[in-house]
Each structure stands twice: as structure tokens, then as C-alpha cells.
Amino acid sequence: MNGTLKILHLEDNDLDAELVASVVAGEGLQCSIHRVQDKAGFLSALENAPDIILADFSLPGFSGADALQIAREISPQTPFILVSGALGEELAIEMIKKGMTDYVMKHRLSRLAPAIQRALREAEEIQTRQRAEKEREEANRELERAFMHTYELAFVDQLTGIPNREALLQNIELLITQGENPFHVLLLNLDGFRRINYRTRYEIGDSVLIAIADRVRKALPDEIRFGRLAGDSFLTIVRQGSHDPEAIADTIINALQQPVVVQEHEFLQSGTVSIVRYPDDGRNGGGLLKTAELNLREARRTGGRVRRFTSEDRLNLERRLAIENALLQRDVVNEMYLVFQPKGRIRDGAVPSLEALIRWKSPKFGELSPAHFIPLAEEIGAITSMSEWIIETGLQTLERMDAMGYPPVHLAINLSPIHLKRPDFLSDLFELFSRHSIAPGRIEFEITEGLLLEDSEWTAGMLTELRNAGFRLALDDFGTGFSNLGYLSRFPVDTIKIDRSFISEIHINERNRSIVRAMISLAEAMGSETVAEGVELEEEFQALADLGCHLIQGYFFSRPLKTEDLFNFLQNRSPVP
């Protein structure tokens, strides 16, 4: 377009208007922007025949949809771009049908200048075509092509250029609507991908994702639908009778075999594929994805690269859903109880500390392992009330022990990251302690390495507040995660718990012995106690004593005990100085 571009901008927010003007100016467009804030101003400005219209969707008493309708009545050929916040898919499609040229989200204004240029080009092409051909049928076909072009833009992953989550889910729903039965959905998740972002810059991780997406897409047959769900998860849709899903899964895994080279870095990235089937494993896209994610976790647990959801898995899923429903009941804690595992001091056998462990004996499901129901409770949001019950029951037990004259001990309680990250965690915790006589210093919250690696600044602040309030902190299962000595110097930890995997065979395995020796030395340098978990043999105990470990926890010293059994156990132990 020759001359100065006349832009009509409908926007009531001063800051947003300034941002749009700044972005347009920064792209070198020769333009004048006439900003209006209401219907009257918009109608008046249309009389000056703007070259393009930009409009927010939500304004007091006058919406972007209203503006679009007026613009199409008065100036049907003028490009109309909605510049707004998140817009639902159905509403976006409806706006496109009514004549919207394009849609740019406010948090992605980098698309605005290209969208304006593209809209102007398309408008000029349409006008030229209409003048040349004068046939309404051709004009309608062009409008339809413009609609499909804009529609596709909303369903392309901005990083990798392949279909995004919305496009994939829509494709699944389309197959269901068309009655295609069965078809398969393959969920690919990259193993340990977060480590790349921890070790390098995020743009390096993005480049790895782009390279992997391109490599897998090229390895798959053209008719296979492949896209990115989110983060490091990708989805493949295999239609009925087109290809064997296991063979496609093998193709995906094989595509990951070669290293990805980005700048000076080389990454060998593996992945795990979960295979589910419609309609057996889910009646819609959301159901299929949930089943695929559950199946993926099982694949990781069993160590497989490719796992297909089976009829036995479906029975387990039904049981899982029933357990989830039970966990959401308010009175479920009435079916739960605590056991306490003593920690023995190596030098004299005294019991300075206990660990509270939750157990669930369900009338319907029987005795359930915490390893089974705790992750479920975290996933569905039931862990907070459960954690609060554990803390309160633990405090009541300590109060009872104090009243019976037992020497005071510390009580270790596992702290769920889900519970810790609640905005009201600290206030609720302090309110709970205000109802009991136990000092915070007698409670030791156990956290995992994974929590330290997530949002470290926030986590450091939260853990510091706990320490300042008097609580003790322990790092659980040390060495089993992505260990990084850097974070240990930043977080206030009183106790380091050495995982059972390093204790096993410590008396005959020199490698394990060397690792544990290093952990104990590190803890001593930090002024922290060490607790060896899962000690079962006298030989293991003696090796730990030789290495200078402070405490042991495991069947060699004591199994987890119910309250009355704990009291009987403590009566035969040495008092705690």
C-alpha cells in the first residue's frame, strides 16, 4: 500500500494502546493510528475510511463482536484484526465466520505487524480479484480460503510448527464424529527433558524440541497425524487399518536414537511411548489422553520404552477411579491411621526421632500401599487435607507421649510439594500448631530433591520461613534424583537421608560404600545429620557405624509401629539425653 497507512484502533486501555502503537512503530510501518474507546467514536472514525481496523474484544458496553458487525455493514472490505486476550476456540471460529480477518493475542504482539501486513495484502488481493472477475462465487471461495488460513493459524504449535494440542484434540473428535472405530493414540514423552533446561539455557531446550519434532515428523508416514501436546509431550494419531501402532511407536523411538546437536551442546534424548485405543480406553479426546498418561507412568515404572494399554489395565483403571472417588470423600481419613518408625542413634541405640507414616485400611479395597494412594491424592488435590490430618495426628501422639513421661523426640513428617505450594500453607500450619503444645522445633519436615529443583527461588524462601519458625528440614532419598551440590548450599537442611539403594550391600559393595562415605562427609561439612534408610542387616549397620553415620532407620532397628506397639518399644530403649 502506498502512502501512510490509516489504522483505526478500538481500545479502552491506555497501556495496551501504547503497546500496540509501539509494536507497529517498531516494525517500520508508515502509519497513523486513530484510537477510539466507544461506539460513537468508532462510528465517527469509520467515516474517514481507515485502511485497517484493530479492536479489543471486551469493552464497557461495546464489544469487539459489535464493532465487527458494524464494520462489515459500513466497510465490508476493510481488514478487521482482533487484538485481545485469550479467546476460546468456538468464539474465535464464530468471529472468523462473521468476517474477522485475524486474531492476535495481547501477550504475543510480535505477531501483530506481520498480521497487519498479511491482512492488507489479502484485502488488496481480494479487491483485485473482485474487480477483475466480478463473480460472487469466486469472491466467496477466496473468503473461504482466508477463513481456513486463519483457522489453521490457531492450531499450529508456535515453537515447532506442527499441530498443537487443540488441533490434535479436534482431529480426535472428528474421527469419533465420523464413526471411525477403532483408532489409536500414541503419547510420546521425552525422558528427563527438564535436565536440559536445568543444565543449559531455555532457548537451548527449545531448539532441542524443534529438532526432535522435525525428526519424528519426517520419520512418520505422511498420512500420520503428529503434533505437540505441551512441553516435552507429543501425540500421534493412527487411523484404523492404516498402520500398526506398535510399528509406529518403534519408528518414533528409533527416530530419537541419534544425538541432537545444538550450538556446542550434544544431547542424546530418549523417550517413552504410551499406546491407547478408541473406544476401549476413552470415549473422547480428554479421556484418551488421561488413559495415555496413566499408561505412560506405568511404562516408566516397569522400564519399557513402548507400552500398550491392556484389558487388565482397564480393570486397574476402574479400580483407580474408584480409589480416587474414595479419596475425595471428606471422612476418608477415618479409615486411615499412622504408624511410627523409630530412628536409632548408632552410637548408643537411643531413639531421638520417629517418622510418621500414613496407612489406609479401606473397607472396600483393603490395605492400600501409600506408594499407590499418595500419588493419586496429590494428583486429584486430596493431599492437603490428608497432610493436615497427618500433622495434627502426629502432634496429638507427641502430646500423649509427653503426658506419659516419655523423653521428648522429634517427629519427621513427609511434606508434599502440592501442600507446600498452597498460598495459605504457612498460615494454616501456624493455626494448627496454635491448638497444640508441641514446639515447631520437634517437627522435621521431609522434602525431596525434586521440590528443590522446581521454582528454586520461591522454594528457598518458603523453606527459609519454615526454618525461621523453628521447624527442622530433612532432604529425603538423597542421591536418587538429579543431585546438584549447588542447591544444597542454598537450602537450609538439618538432615540428609541416604536412600536404601545405596545402603544395600554396603558391606560388600565398595562402590556403594564410597558413595555413602562421600554423602556423610558432605553432610558433616554442611552441619547436617545423616540418616541411613532401609537398614536391614547387622553387616550394613556395622558398615554405617564405621563410616560415621548418625542414625539408622529400617527393619534392623525397628519396623513401623502402631502407637501402642511404639510405646512398648520405647520402654525398652535408652533415654534421649
Jot down its keywords.
elongated, 3 domains, five-stranded parallel beta sheet, 577 residues, eight-stranded mixed beta barrel, single chain, TIM Barrel, 21 strands, Alpha-Beta Plaits, alpha/beta, Rossmann fold
What does this structure look like?
This protein is α/β, with parallel strands linked by helices. The chain folds into three domains: 5-153, Rossmann fold; 165-309, 2-Layer Sandwich (Alpha-Beta Plaits), CATH 3.30.70.270; 329-571, EAL domain (TIM Barrel, Alpha-Beta Barrel), CATH 3.20.20.450. Strand 11 (271-278), helix 11 (285-302) and strand 12 form a beta-alpha-beta unit. Helix 5 runs antiparallel to helix 6 and helix 12 crosses helix 13 (370-380). The longest helix is centred in the N-terminal third of the chain and has 22 residues, at 112-133. It starts with a strand and ends in a 6-residue tail after the last helix.
